[in-house]
């Protein structure tokens, strides 16, 4: 009964997403297989490029795929799981969230081909998990985004930057601030302390963690109440640009009042500045303190996992992680939207900014560490987002010690040894070559 209800609901979703496709063999009298549904984080031009790749991926088999893109990914997936109608494949950026789903038996272990693709990617972000006495790989990275970057207009001096800050992001507001704190901790205290903190093995009240918060406040400097309010309500991609088709975002550089000069943001933001001459530099050069960890970089990833019992879903994940899918994805995407793929041997972006970022990723980085908040259990990650927003509103009066104590309470409820099986500490940072 569970399977029939789930299939019917998923079939309805696929029919809405891809009306021209027969969802089941009997729907229009044809012999086409049921459409597989993929849920992912990309919308707009990003989503269109990924969807176009999916439609070209059938290789003459007649298999059909429908893509649902949403910026509220966790909320959408939770609702579908509660309705017992999950997608066949979901693409998530949170290792902590994926680990929870695997522990709850929501994920299907991958076949050998997809597991091998995971092993070829930049380690270690598809670790084999020991669950119920068995060891399996449950997800595979499809693309990566290099963080630990600072953006500015070409020719702009790096001295005394005025930082652009936009913290609004629908249901996950605050993450541009957590990126800052993570990056500061990584560069000042090193990958070891970073990995212990990300996996719940280091207290939030540790002096190194506390110093990352206060350093962020010092870097941003004194801000007026109007500036604070603007940052709290401005999207991380800036406001719509009336000069661009469809009101595409203009980015934060030069668009906030008073005008800001530098932005701390992940590699994905390059599509916003595609028609603007920008400079991108490693963030380590802008952070105070020791420089021993300049070769460490934070990265984010988008991982595909199977929520369906249909074996074709596992086959799809294997194909998505292969060379054909990546070539098609690059062909369908505009130059500034071509992904950074999770292995140095994969084709990389061709636009100037993309090439610069790829060079940092493949030639300059000595250690890559996964986004710490995406390693954390969802409950702790969300508490981190909220605490950053409170601290940003008033760093002097936000009772930082109280915020860190509250985060420690959440950590203790989800830390290894509290009945949880989170990602291993060794699954956070590693050299790019393994």
Task: Give a quick summary of the entry.
This is Alpha-glucosides-binding periplasmic protein AglE. This protein is an alpha/beta fold and 434 residues long.
Task: Summarize the structure in words.
It comes from Streptomyces formicae. With 434 residues, the chain is an alpha/beta fold. The protein has 2 domains: 2-145 and 302-354, 3-Layer(aba) Sandwich (D-Maltodextrin-Binding Protein, domain 2); 147-298 and 366-430, Periplasmic binding protein-like II (D-Maltodextrin-Binding Protein, domain 2, 3-Layer(aba) Sandwich). The chain is 39% helix and 14% strand. It has 14 helices and 13 strands. It has helices at residues 2-17, 44-55, 73-82, 95-103, 112-120, 175-198, 207-220, 225-233, 311-320, 323-332, 352-364, 372-375, 378-393, 400-414; strands at residues 36-40, 65-69, 89-92, 129-131, 134-136, 139-146, 149-153, 163-164, 262-264, 278-282, 296-306, 367-370, 429-430. Strands 1, 2, 3, 6, 11, 12 and 13 form a 7-stranded mixed β-sheet that branches. Helix 2 (44-55) crosses helix 10, helix 6 (175-198) packs antiparallel against helix 7 and helix 13 runs antiparallel to helix 14.
């Amino acid at each position: 009964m569970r399977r029939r209800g789930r299939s019917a609901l998923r079939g309805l979703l696929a029919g809405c997403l891809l009306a021209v496709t027969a969802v089941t063999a009997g729907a229009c009298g044809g012999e086409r297989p049921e459409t597989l549904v993929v849920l992912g984080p990309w919308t707009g031009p990003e989503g269109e490029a990924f969807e176009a790749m999916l439609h070209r991926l059938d290789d003459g088999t007649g298999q059909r795929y429908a893509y649902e893109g949403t910026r509220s990914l966790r909320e959408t997936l939770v609702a579908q799981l509660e309705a017992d109608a999950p997608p066949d494949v979901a693409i998530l950026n949170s290792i902590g969230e994926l680990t929870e789903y695997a522990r709850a038996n929501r994920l299907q272990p991958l076949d050998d081909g997809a597991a091998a693709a995971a092993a070829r990617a930049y380690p270690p972000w598809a670790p084999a998990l020991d669950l119920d006495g068995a060891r399996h790989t449950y997800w595979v990275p499809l693309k990566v985004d290099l963080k630990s970057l600072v953006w500015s207009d070409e020719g702009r001096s790096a001295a005394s930057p005025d930082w652009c800050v936009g913290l609004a992001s629908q249901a996950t507001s605050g993450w541009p601030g957590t990126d800052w704190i993570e990056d500061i901790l990584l560069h000042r205290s090193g990958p070891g302390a970073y990995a212990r903190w990300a996996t719940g093995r280091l207290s939030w009240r540790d002096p190194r963690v506390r110093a990352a918060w206060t350093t962020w406040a010092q870097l941003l400097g004194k801000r007026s109440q109007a500036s604070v309010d603007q940052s709290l309500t401005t999207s991380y991609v800036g406001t719509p640009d009336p000069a661009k088709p469809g009101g595409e975002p203009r980015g934060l550089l030069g668009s906030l009042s008073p005008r800001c000069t530098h932005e701390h943001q992940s590699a994905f933001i390059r599509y916003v500045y595609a028609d603007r001459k920008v400079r991108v530099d490693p963030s380590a050069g802008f952070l105070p303190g020791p420089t021993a960890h300049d070769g460490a970089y934070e990265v984010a990833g988008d991982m595909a996992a199977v929520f369906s019992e249909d074996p074709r879903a596992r086959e799809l994940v294997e194909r998505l992680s292969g060379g054909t899918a990546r070539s098609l994805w690059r062909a369908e995407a505009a130059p500034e939207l071509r992904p950074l793929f999770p292995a140095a041997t994969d084709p990389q972006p061709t636009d100037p900014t993309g090439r610069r970022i790829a060079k940092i990723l493949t030639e300059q980085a000595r250690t890559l560490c996964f986004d710490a908040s995406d390693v954390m259990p969802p409950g702790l990650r969300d508490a981190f987002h909220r605490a950053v927003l409170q601290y940003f509103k008033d760093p002097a009066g936000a009772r930082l010690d109280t915020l860190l104590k509250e985060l420690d309470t959440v950590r203790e409820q989800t830390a290894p040894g509290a009945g949880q099986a989170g990602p291993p500490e060794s699954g956070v940072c590693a050299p790019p070559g393994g």
